[in-house]
Amino acid sequence: MKKANVLIILFVISLFLFSCTKNSKNSQSNESLTTKSETEDTSNQIVKYTRSFTGKVFDDTPEFKFIINGYSDNDYACHANKIEIFDAINNQKLQEMNFDDTDIFLSYNNTLGFRLTDLNFDGYKDIMFLYASVSARANHLYYCWLWDKDSQRFVENKSFSDIFNPAIDRKNKQLLSIVANNARSHTWGMYIFADGKFLLSNELTEELLYDEINTNKPKWHYTESKLENGTMNVIEDFTIIDNSNIQAEQYHDENSFWGLGSKKWYMSDYGSGLNDKKTSNDLGFKFDE
Fold it and tell me: Which NCBIfam families does the entry link to (predicted)?
């Protein structure tokens, strides 16, 4: 009888130990899952930015402080959706602009794509704000707010937002645009400001074609259009071989009407300049430390 009782006690102890071991394994397994989940959450952290700049729209206007809040949720892009404007002296809030999230290269997080410059040639500085880099060829698009001296506020101008890579030609009071359509084609455009809108006045497209018989002799196709009586009309349309045509060469001459070989087609802050404090004078504002 005593032997039987001893066997029963040993059996119960064995069950208890087995149960403890199983619970311990389950506990370790749950700990492992929890740690993994925390690691995944950490990898998706949002990095937030606050950028503050000061600048004037004109000599006789007060100095403004521009505050932009942005964020990044990956390793290659950053975003913003609001610009707040304050009086730099008394810190009174003057205006707030809200917009759809921008999507620009992370390398631009120093300015988040902000620039203060005169866009419509009235002598007052306006706001241009990079909102997208389209395609692998970095065709940049910008939001735009023009300074309205009557209301003393910035007013959005949506006609500017369709102009790719805008450069400012102050000599001729026009905007210049160059677009990489693909690896073999580019389009150049000239824009004037009239009746409160930016209007395309001249356009030139250059496209590399290939001769079906002899691919060693590339063909180039040019199409030039001009704004006439409110309509864009084609004024030149021709194809040449080896780009050795006098008219085509004139397009690229720096001193010609188009001057495609000139630096005027590129903004001073095109590319890395948007993130360089050394170029802040070109950007039209001062970085707040």
Answer: XAC2610_fam (NF047539)
